[in-house]
Amino acid sequence: MVEEQSLLTALKSQSQREQAFRELITTYKERLYWHIRKIVLNHDDADDVLQNTFIKVFRNIDKFQGDSKLYTWMYRIATNEAITFINKRAKKMQITSEEVQQAALSNLEEDVYFEGSEIQLKLQRAIATLPQKQQLVFNMKYFDDITYEDLSKILETSVGGLKSSYHIAVKKITAHLENNETF
Amino acid sequence: MKNDKKKYKSGFKTPDSYFEELGDKLLSIVSEEKLPKETGYKVPVDYFETIEEKILSKTLKEKETKVVSIFSQKNIWYVSGIAAAILLLLFLTLNNDSIDPNTINFAEIETYINSDHLDLEAQDIAQLLNEEDLESLETEILSITKESIENYLLESLDDTSLLIE
């Protein structure tokens, strides 16, 4: 917390800003990339969204009040950026955002940056059957192991709501995989 | 003696429907253990080593580039008026959902506008301007140099291949 506070102070100071921003990218680039990647699925899209996320963080850091953790604030920006990206593509292609995701999923097998096993591919397909919010909760809890308290700040949902969302997601995914005879 | 019939009460209690939900919770934990722990996604070689410079070159270049303002002091008032109208609209819309407007930051407003939730037509904005305003805007626009437009496009366009032509 002290480290985050000093990083924040440096980010808001003109003289230390560049160095602090470099440190911020080094610290969070991988975590944010994998979070975004699980939403947009494709590497090039994740790269675009990650860059936009950091640019937005850079432009808005002076307005960050510090009433939440810096990392939950950045996760919130990354989540919004990724969802906006999908919605914009859907609008451009005149299809739904679910169809955008299905199209990205169907390209996964040929994607050189996906080397998942059959079961990993099926898991991604099962996750895609969930409503968007449940997908976010499942990915952030299951793969990233983010606490419910932090998740609550990122997604602006109560801890109780998130817990039930996660359990429903696990149930649906298991049922989907069982119906497809994976287990 | 039956286990479930205690003679004395301990005073402890559980949250509502704790035992009803316990089975579901445990089942989801057990089924979770069968799921793969990795996603299978990977990144190009050296991606994370090079991404910092990529982002820094964009953000720092932005700081160094001289910004050519297309708005005079007078026109800033019009733009501020439009911005105020947008904020008022946001306030009214969001207030209906009992969200405290003080908790919304600028990044969120920007995301909201970028997500095309704000259905503002050019005509709505034009109605805020009178003939004199339009004339002065026109003069301002005519004074923008070709170079400034090119710089702006280079900064803002995702697909710069359009500029090759």
Account of the 3D structure:
The complex is a heterodimer of chains A (183) and B (165). In chain A, 76% of the residues lie in helices and 0% in strands. Chain A has 183 residues and is an all-alpha fold. The model of chain A has no long low-confidence stretch (mean pLDDT 90). Chain B is built from 7 helices and no strands. Chain B has helices spanning 18-34, 47-64, 73-96, 106-114, 122-126, 131-142, 146-156. The mean pLDDT of chain B is 69. The chains are: A mainly alpha (183), B mainly alpha (165).
Number of strands of chain B: 0
Tell me what portion of residues of chain A adopts beta-strand conformation.
under 5%
Shape of chain A: globular
* Oligomeric form: heterodimer
Most residues in contact, chain pair and counts? A-B, 53 and 38 residues
Helix and strand pattern of chain B: HHHHHHH
In terms of structural class, how would the helical and strand content of chain B be classed? mainly alpha
Profile the largest sheet of chain A.
none
Mean pLDDT of chain B: 69
Number of helices of chain B: 7
Main sheet properties of chain B: none
Euclidean distance between termini CA atoms of chain B: 91 Å
Helix fraction of chain B by DSSP (H/I, runs of at least 4): 55-70%
Residue ranges of chain A: pLDDT <50 for 5 or more in a row?
none
Q: With helices defined by DSSP (H or I, 4 residues minimum), what is the helix count of chain A?
A: 9
Helix content of chain A: over 70%
* Derived structural class of chain A: mainly alpha
Order of H and E elements of chain A: HHHHHHHHH
